[in-house]
Write a structure and sequence with these properties.
Distance between the termini: 30 Å
Largest sheet: 2 strands, parallel
Number of helices: 4
Radius of gyration: 14 Å
Shape: globular
Order of helices and strands: HHEHEH
Number of strands: 2
Structural class: mainly alpha
Strand order of the largest sheet: 1-2
Length: about 90
Amino acid sequence: MEDSPFERTVIRSAVEGLTQFTICGEASDGVEGIQKALELKPDLIIMDLAMPQMTGAEAAMVLRNTLPAVPIILFTLYAEQLRERYRPLLG
């Protein structure tokens, strides 16, 4: 799940070129991603933290309850901004 078509292409190329996984579906936001995951029952879910309609973190919480055996990888291109935002919580 990634809202940028370019980033989805990069992720697809990396995953299919460097791992044994095959991409079975793509989604541009968390809502669509949940629908696709429930329909396709993937072995692994990779999603961006920052997406429209529903964030990756929100979608991951839903998916953790509905597909508990499926590993989820969350990523972001905004790690530094998130680190600063959550620094008080992290110590």
